[in-house]
Amino acid sequence: MTAYDLVVIGGGPGGYVAAIRAAQLGMTVACIEGRGALGGTCLNVGCIPSKALLTSSGKYAALSNLAAHGIAVEDSSVDVGAMMARKDKLVGDLTKGIGFLFKKNGVDLIEGWASIPAAGQVKVQNDQGSSLLEAKHILIATGSEPTPLPGIAIDEVDILSSTGALALDSVPKHLVVIGAGVIGLELGQVWSQLGAKVTVVEFLDRILPGIDGEIAKLAQRALSKRGLKFQLGRKVTGIEKTAEGLELALERIAKGTEETLQADKVLVAIGRLPVTSGLGLDALGVSVNARGFIEVDGRFATSVPGIYAIGDCVPGPMLAHKAEEDGVACVEMLTGEPAHVDYNTVPGVVYTNPEVASVGQTEEALKEAGTAYISGKFSFMANSRARSIGETDGAVKVLASPDGTLLGAHIVGAHGGDLIAELVLAMTKGATVDDIARSCHAHPSMAEAVKEACLDALGRAIHA
Ligand code: FAD
Ligand code: NAI
Predict the structure, then answer these.
(1) Which of 341, 362, 396 delimits the end of a domain?
(2) Where are the annotated coiled coils located (predicted)?
(3) What is the distance in A from the centroid of ligand 1 to the CA of 5?
């Protein structure tokens, strides 16, 4: 039986990063991956293909907005096959890159599906049969999968999960998205930017639950302006296949009335659930919570000694960079290094046009907790770079304690996903809005809106 210091189950951003870091720290490491490619959900069917398609479709949509720049585009067309081929090549190149990093760092990749017959042992099943590994430590990084909608079967042809919506071979006429969360908005906008009518049906009376309410409203307005239609406060109760396509039965929650909606494709994007089946957790006695997420302590240890878990399969934000932080902190602690993850400073970015980015507390959460705070806001309409590039929708909002310490920051706007990094660093270092306001920001830049929002919180805004 081959023996390792660490066997990582799952080669997604959590697992592969943990494996590399553990090898750097001197551990003997194997990483087991069943899907036939490294990179997990994120590289194969998540972050990367969705951003590739958002970019391609965004370039096409931008063609119809060039008249104000004095540019006329006579004929434009979309070759969905070529767009998908670009996306697939990008994914293939990046996943192969991780294989190269494994070799460079001495991590053994074992292809197959893993289970844990006992603490200290990992069984791998693949085309060659099964084999047993001995492991001083086992790290579960098996990720997540789409939450099913009861009574609605995903066939990935007409009724899609995110995976199917990333691989359509033509532009649907009417795509109905169930769920106005991150996936629904990003993938809804991909197809909307390519010319599809896209209607987003959401259970709640708002989009993007968890995001600051004022910012979510600004985002909804900007996304509506770019073509997304929203039907909020509605529940999909069934989908029927008809001669014309699909007919969705909806219930208006506040009124209890019923409605129907015709579509030719439906994307179900109502959240994700942990992947843990087949690992043997029950028999081992590994505790999971009511929703199936593996329970861990501050060192990522499960209820069974020697077994750890990170990333999407444990409670917390389901984000690639969070999974990576978990993985690095977990293996650093295993080797005696001081490490921790501050979940309050994990940023979240929705890569729509415009982007929606946030870190830390929302205004609603501060109010609910009775925390005293000051706030500042600056609209991109008053930012000269935003005016120059024609991206004036949105604003930066900062929330701070009365002494100025940043508690949260929220952005809707072009490049918001990059702008948030300054605020993440500031929060991580305990900086105040005054610290940001007193640091020099290049002119003209979108980042000046961050500085102005901080000035506004202090009552010193110059351009508002
Ligand atoms: P995963 O990436 O899910 O990896 C787990 C791996 O484990 C998989 O490859 C799986 O095959 C393997 N595995 C599972 N069970 C076994 C087993 N028994 N044996 C062997 N292997 C096994 N996050 C962001 O931060 N930014 C984004 O822009 C973003 N976009 C997204 C877009 C979409 C459409 C989706 C679906 C998700 C997106 N996410 C994004 C979320 C991100 O993909 C996840 O948070 C991230 O992949 C979680 O990493 P992980 O390593 O925990 O799990
Ligand atoms: P989500 O949790 O972001 O949103 C799901 C939405 O569906 C919510 O608004 C919810 O109220 C709604 N909903 C739930 N049940 C419903 C029903 N029956 N009918 C109508 N609406 C319903 O989940 P989503 O979008 O599926 O994404 C899953 C995870 O993937 C998220 O946790 C996210 O962090 C991650 N992700 C991250 C991305 C990024 O960082 N850019 C991109 C895509 C996904």
Answers:
(1) 341
(2) none
(3) 24
Could you give the angle at the alpha carbon of 177 between the alpha carbons of 174 and 178, nearest 5°? 140
CA pair distance 92, 44, nearest whole angstrom: 8
Last residue of a domain, one of 270, 302, 321: 270
- Give the N- to C-terminal CA distance of the chain in Å, as an integer: 68
Question: pLDDT grade, residue 113 (50/70/90)?
Answer: very high
Do 40 and 62 have their domain in common?
yes
Residue 195's domain comprises 159-270
Beta bridge partners of 399: 375, 408
Is the C-beta atom of 319 inside 6 A of ligand 1?
yes
Report the atom number in ligand 1 closest to the C-alpha of 318.
Answer: 45
Atom of ligand 2 nearest to the CA of 236: 19
Is 276 near ligand 1, meaning CB less than 6 Å away?
no
The answer to whether 165 is annotated as binding is: no
Distance 208 CA to ligand 2 centre (A): 8
pLDDT in tens, 421-436: 999 999 999 999 999 9
User: Comparing C-alpha atoms, which of 267, 266, 286, 268 is closest to residue 276?
Assistant: 286
- Residue 144 in contact with ligand 1 by CB distance below 6 A: yes
Distance from the CA of 46 to the center of ligand 1, in angstroms? 7
The total number of structural domains that make up the chain: 3
Active site residue 443: yes
pLDDT digits (tens, 9 = 90+) for 280-304: 999 999 999 999 999 999 999 999 9
- φ, ψ of residue 197 in degrees (nearest 5): -75, 130
